[in-house]
Design brief:
Structural class: mainly alpha
CATH superfamily of one domain: Cytochrome c-like domain
CATH topology of one domain: Cytochrome Bc1 Complex, Chain D, domain 2
Number of strands: 0
Order of helices and strands: HHHHH
Largest sheet: none
Low-confidence stretches: none
Shape: elongated
Radius of gyration: 24 Å
Helix content: 40-55%
CATH class of one domain: Mainly Alpha
Length: 166
């Protein structure tokens, strides 16, 4: 066997392996769950009301109301669980949002309010003392996915006694 035919066989096998890999990738991608694309959401949510914001003339700007488009959707909550891990939220809030360096997200007690819109604002804009703003990285759809997941967490049977209520 000559060096030329050996190289030709090597290239043929390489092209065949590459083609097989492409076909397998296309097959795997086509097997994924088909989802209806989400309705277009506003790029930036309404303004957050906060005691640290200065409002000219003591009149706040008009804003819309935030409403979770996925409230109670179990499939979105499962996606949110994956996103919670992928974004390393569990690095601060613990596995399943059970609390660690950051607060427990499943015990029903919230520093900045536990309504869907308030949780959305906490994730989107961040909060003082360690909660970064994820709105720029996740967009509104990603943040609503996380909110849906957090709202699906069961309240633990033993809740610590400390409360953020005055």
């Amino acid at each position: 066997m000559t060096a030329h035919s050996s190289r030709a066989n090597h290239w043929r096998r390489g092209r065949l392996a590459y083609t097989a890999l492409l076909l397998l990738s296309a097959a795997l991608l086509s097997c994924g769950e088909q989802r209806v694309p989400p309705q277009p959401a506003s790029v930036v949510p309404p303004a957050v009301s906060s005691e640290s914001h200065i409002v000219a003339g003591d009149v706040p700007p008009t804003t819309g109301t935030l409403r979770n488009p996925h409230a109670g959707d179990a499939a979105v909550a499962r996606s949110g669980a994956l996103l919670f891990t992928a974004m390393n939220c569990d690095g601060c809030h613990g596995t399943g949002g059970s609390g660690w360096v950051g607060p427990n997200l499943g015990d029903g007690r919230w520093r900045y309010g536990g309504a869907d819109a308030e949780v959305f604002n906490s994730i989107y804009f961040g909060r003082p003392h360690g909660m970064p703003a994820f709105g720029g990285a996740l967009g509104t759809e990603g943040v609503w996915t996380l909110v849906t997941y957090l709202r699906s967490l069961p309240v633990p049977p033993n809740v610590p006694t400390q409360s953020w209520q005055n």
